[in-house]
TrEMBL record:
Claim: Transmembrane helix is one of the keywords in the record: yes
Residue ranges constituting the DZANK-type domain according to the UniProt record: 64-114
Classification via InterPro entries: DZR, FdhE-like_sf
UniProt-recorded name of the protein: DZANK-type domain-containing protein
SUPFAM superfamilies: FdhE-like
Pfam families listed in its UniProt record: DZR
Transmembrane domains' residue ranges: 30-51
Residues in coiled coil: none
Keywords of this entry: Membrane, Transmembrane, Transmembrane helix
Presence of keyword Cytoplasm: no
Amino acid sequence: MGWIVISWIVFAVVAGIAASARNRSVVGWVLLALLLSPLVALILLAFLPAVKVEEDAPGRFTACPECGALGPAKALKCGKCGAEFTAPPPPDTRACPFCAEEIKVAAIVCKHCGREVARPSLPGLEVSHLPLETYGASGRPEVR
């Protein structure tokens, strides 16, 4: 009698692992398999399509650098292999506040619209050697 209960629980866990492989809730499928039957849960999983995960959705998921498993974007370590995530490098471009074109983070003048943008406060950035600009009658910057 005891082996039936143990095998029921083991096969329910197997159904949960199979659900995880199809991007479905492990806990939900284990509970379903325990309540109904592990065989019914496995048959349902076989006929239901896998849940599609939008890998290109920015900010929702991040891939583990070690095993490639997807996890929440704000996770500090992988839920499957336990590898720690490192912070992504800071961006090297930003949007110009006037024309919304991409410019370098260190830029103080937009190369697209020619307007002076706020100087970034980046450590080690020397901008004192750059010429001062004024705006002439044309509205375009003029170097003194």
